[in-house]
Design a protein that fits this description.
Blueprint lengths: L2 H12 L10 H12 L7 H10 L4 H17 L10 H6 L1 H8 L1 H12 L2 E4 L8 H4 E10 L14 H12 L10 E2 L8 H18 L9 E9 L8 H12 L5 E6 L1 H11 L5 H6 L6 H18 L6 E4 L4 E2 L2 H8 L3 H6 L6 E3 L5 E13 L30 H12 L7 E2 L7 E4 H7 L11 H11 L5 E15 L1 H4 L1 H27 L5 H7 L12 H13 L4 H20 L1 H21 L4 H9 L6
Parallel strand pairs: 2-3, 2-4, 2-6, 4-5, 9-12
Antiparallel strand pairs: 1-8, 6-11, 7-12, 8-9, 9-11, 10-12
Helix pairs in contact: 2-3, 2-23, 4-23, 4-24, 6-7, 6-17, 7-17, 12-26, 14-19, 21-23, 21-24, 23-24
């Protein structure tokens, strides 16, 4: 019996696969695939017949595409024995975390400790002058049944919106903001409103002058191409209509604005630079843009800038909680951190703490205290279907407790959240880190991989940890409808994540095993020796209990992802590196012309 047959048999023993339980044809084919692996199954003949009649179905096309790679991946491997045999194959970190949590915690602490810590002169002394705050806005078409007649914008706007609604979706995000959604459910308004309130506390504490404004730069990515033409106009309309900001100025960068910057500021830009500078596409593209925009903003708008710091708009600085539990406000955490220091890591490498990481507490847990992990370890009874194979929650939970909400200051961070992280402009110029443009999810986790690939003068760029720099995560409090609509895409993104991270690691200068060790235990668990096997088996397992909306579109997405990993990923990594090298080199060596400065100024919203 082949190893793939053994894996399937394990799952057959744990799940009641039956063609007759399927929601539709796509689901039935997922059931049939597993049943076909077991000649003793009562529906074996029916399964083979169903598969034979639907060979061209996307679910089976994906399975057929994967099989040669799976055969190569599993060559020489055997199914481990024990209670969690599939975890031992696909998710060994989960076994360690479940069975030896104390040793895992100690290992994380040891691996993250920084010694010979030398504080740089305080990196940030005036947050409003020296820090560019950034966030991402993900726009989607209106939800089914929602009206957009209340949007008082031009006929051209509504025509463009209608055109977008007729287009095929090109990009998928966890919870995009549908154009026209109510103000109460609008993440843009929620985040900006609460940030403005948080800054009032900084005024009261003398950290911000009453006449000062903190700049917030928003990247505006879209699910449907035509939305890019109205993104800035729509965001400005919503903020102007619903908010009266006192301490914030907002700049918006949609894909159209990025193209204008390239045309005016980088007219000789190579294909590599054009490929990386923008906000549409996978998460990695806008994530890196929100770092890279800061030195451009410094050159064209605000010479005093020294750093950029990203938040998510479903997160809130709960200032009273911060001050009560840590004695510091948001600004004071920034100014009193180890950001910019140097030290030695656990392997004896020189490191520069040019990046800064904070953390999150869920809104539903905030009453328990600021230092409450936002990811909980499994309790043994709450495993999802796919966690029979792969359980990232165990390493994520322990890593969250030992890194993200740690009260130690002598730690470097590897595990970071998508919001509450920053980088110094000097570090951008020197190390030029980036998240590859193909990364769909966990763009925050992927960012450090480029830093680990490119030490400068035998020194690595790493994250400093600031204990207590924690935001309250409120997504579930206001974005329930949007999250529900986006759930299938999020699950598929996790499967793509295994394929993309594992292929990226395979070509990384450190090598897959060394990189996996650096990322231990999270995000190392997503770097797999058998990614194609895991991707196919997880997809079919979950597809057995879902419908065509998940399985058909998912199979087509995963076929594209698989082919990309096999044929294009390595070249894209090299292209990304060349593109960002070109960008920073040009910024260092040239002055921005007036036309580029004008385009940047035009990105600022007119809210009065």
């Amino acid at each position: 019996m082949s190893l793939l047959n053994q894996i399937s048999q394990q799952l057959i023993n744990q799940n009641q696969f039956s063609i007759h339980k399927a929601a539709d044809l796509s689901s039935a084919l997922c059931h049939a695939w597993f049943i076909s692996q077991d000649p003793s199954h009562t529906e074996h003949a029916q399964a083979l017949d169903l598969i034979d009649r639907h060979q061209s179905h996307p679910v089976l096309e994906f399975a057929a595409l994967c099989l040669p790679a799976i055969e190569e991946e599993l060559k020489g491997r055997t199914l481990p024995q024990g209670e969690h045999a599939l975890w031992a194959l696909f998710s060994p970190e989960a076994i360690e975390c479940e069975t030896e949590p104390k040793q895992v915690r100690e290992k994380i602490q040891a691996k993250r400790t920084i010694t010979q810590l030398e504080n740089a002169s305080q990196a940030i002394t005036n947050v409003a002058d020296q820090l560019l705050l950034t966030s991402n806005v993900l726009l989607g078409i209106p939800l089914k049944g929602d009206s957009v007649e209340h949007i008082k914008l031009s006929e051209k706007f509504h025509q463009t919106l209608a055109k977008a609604q007729a287009e095929d979706q090109e990009y998928w995000y966890d919870h995009p903001i549908p154009v026209g959604i109510s103000s109460e459910e609008n993440e843009i308004l929620y985040g900006i409103k609460h940030l403005d309130r948080a800054l009032a506390t900084e005024v009261e504490r003398g950290n911000l002058r009453a006449d000062q404004k903190l700049t917030v730069a928003l990247s505006c990515s879209v699910t449907h191409p035509s939305l890019a033409h109205i993104a800035k106009e729509y965001v400005e309309y919503e903020i102007r209509t619903h908010l009266n900001l006192k301490h914030i100025e907002v700049a918006v960068f949609g894909e159209d604005e990025c193209l204008a910057i390239l045309a005016e500021g980088f007219p000789q830009a190579s294909k590599d630079l054009k490929g990386v500078f923008g906000v549409n596409g996978s998460y990695g593209r806008h994530y890196t843009f929100l770092k890279a925009i800061a030195p451009l903003w410094q050159k064209g708008i605000k010479p005093s800038l020294k750093a950029t710091f990203k938040i998510d708009l479903d997160q809130v600085f709960e200032q009273s909680m911060l001050i009560e539990e840590t004695g510091k406000s948001f600004f004071e955490h920034i100014m009193q951190s180890n950001w910019g220091a140097n030290g030695i890591d656990a392997d004896g490498n020189k490191v520069h703490l040019g990046m800064l990481g904070g953390g999150l507490v869920n809104e539903t847990d905030a009453h328990k205290g600021l230092f409450t992990a936002d990811v909980k370890a499994p309790n043994g009874k709450d495993y999802a279907i796919f966690e029979q194979l792969f359980c990232a929650r165990w390493p994520q939970a322990l890593s969250t407790e030992e890194e993200i909400i740690s009260k130690r200051k002598d730690l470097q961070r590897v595990h970071v959240t998508g919001g509450t992280n920053g980088i110094l402009l000097d570090s951008l110029y020197k190390f030029r880190p980036y998240t590859p443009t193909f990364i769909h999810r966990a763009e925050d986790q992927a960012f450090i991989l480029s830093a680990l690939a490119n030490p400068v003068d035998d020194q690595y760029l790493v994250y400093s940890h600031q204990p207590g720099l924690i935001m309250r995560h409120d997504k579930e409090a206001f974005a329930g409808r949007v999250m529900e609509v986006a759930e299938a895409g999020k699950v598929l993104g996790d499967i793509e994540r295994v394929l993309l991270f594992s292929t990226y690691a395979k070509h990384h200068p450190l090598g897959l095993e060394a990189l996996k060790d650096k990322l231990y235990p999270f995000t190392g668990t997503f770097v797999s020796q058998t990614p194609v096997t895991l991707a196919l088996v997880r997809f079919l397992l979950e597809g057995s209990f879902k419908d065509a909306e998940y399985s058909e579109s998912g199979a087509n997405r995963l076929i594209k992802c698989f082919n990309y990993c096999q044929n294009s990923l390595q070249d894209e990594v090299h292209s990304n590196q060349r593109g960002w090298d070109e960008y920073y080199q040009l910024l260092m060596n040239t002055e921005l012309n007036q036309a580029t400065q004008f385009v940047l100024h035009e990105c600022l919203l007119t809210l009065e």
